Amino acid sequence: MDQLMAIRAFARVVEAGNFTRAADSLEMPNATLSKLVQELEAHLGVRLLQRTTRRVTVTPEGRDYYERTARLLRDLEDIDTSFNAVRSTPRGLLRVDVGGSTARDVLIPALPDFLARYPDIRLDLGVSDRAVDLISDNVDCVIRGGPLDNSSLIARRIGSATLVTCATPDYLKAFGTPAYPQELKNGHRLVSYLSPQTGRAFPFRFERNGETTDIKVEHRIGVNESNAHLAAGLAGLGIIQTFSYALGPSLKSGALVEILSAWRPAPYPFHVVYPQNRHVTHRLRVFIDWLLASFPQRVSGE
User: Fold this and answer.
1) Among 53, 101, 134, 252, which is least packed, fewest CB within 10 Å?
2) Domain end residue (candidates: 84, 107, 124)
3) What's the CA gap between 182 and 231, in Å, rounded?
């Protein structure tokens, strides 16, 4: 038995949540992965995983073994990386999850530069505003805006975006241009962005002289995907509040008009997030470094 390979196989099953995803991430047949784990269990004389037809559960002994060996694997891989990073070319598949408008307006336009620098890296982009489980979905990192609420993840801030409130000229002609945020409660039609996780509408947020105002009113229409949210605003369905990087062409052409600019809220933070228990590969390191250098200007619209 190749014990190191068996430990790595077991760790990926724990992280991925099942044998199929683990085998895919290690690029090995499912039967080979299963055999490695069985040999490891026989070697240790304990059951590490409970298997049923529907799911895999880690036993208490398996959880303890995973926590101890995960540290060992990270240390070993860090040693390898310290010797190889300078000489080797980053290569392989990188799986990145990113929101719809961020992918369209920020990340994808910048990718030619990244791929030119690192031609041996392949990218799989998962584009959705819905949050993914980095471990079970076998994603290397995600790019997301807003506050973070998962302490088991590592987050690096990569920039900030400006939220802009706007509507079409025809809408403003029909319903009037509000002079201050509270006027949005007086008969205006709002197109809310809905949380893909909870379905709840994010409030329209405003800030002036250090004072924050959240406007929560019943929306005319709610949308839970950023590109469709912008499309609803462009269709004249009501007032929207979204990121300036997504609005650039529409504001420049006059298709949308900014309102309440004196009450623009504080910049909205963006992070690249990845699991703290998973080794950071050379290709992920260079991708994060590239994001830190290129993302801030693009997301801010500068």
Assistant:
1) 53
2) 84
3) 25
Q: Are residues 96 and 137 in the same domain?
A: yes
SS3 breakdown of the chain: % helix, strand, coil, rounded to 5? 45, 25, 30
Token look-up 């959240």 returns: 214
Pick from 105, 144, 104: nearest CA to 298 = 105
Q: Cβ of 279: how many Cβ atoms within 10 Å?
A: 17
On average, the pLDDT of the chain sits at 86
DSSP class of residue 20 equals H
- Indicate which CATH number applies to the domain containing 47: 1.10.10.10
For residues 265 and 213, what is the distance between their CA atoms, to the nearest angstrom? 9
Q: Quick one: which of 225, 224, 205 has its CA closest to 215?
A: 205
Residue 135 pLDDT: 62
Last residue of a domain, one of 36, 52, 84: 84
Map residue 181 onto helix, strand or coil.
Answer: helix
What are the b/e assignments for 174-189, b being 16+ CB within 10 Å?
Answer: eeeebeebeebeeebb
* DSSP state letters, 207-233: EETTEEEEE----SEEESSHHHHHHHH
pLDDT digits 0-9 by tens, 67-102:
888 778 777 766 666 665 555 788 888 889 998 999
Which of 16, 18, 8, 15 has the alpha carbon at shortest distance from 69? 8
The parts of the chain modelled with pLDDT lower than 50 are 302
158, 292 Cβ separation under 8 angstroms: yes
Per-residue pLDDT at 174 = 95
CA 230/CA 130 separation, integer angstroms = 17
- Angle of helix 60-84 versus helix 282-300 axis, rounded to 10: 80
Contact 139, 207 (CB under 8 A): no
pLDDT attached to residue 260: 95
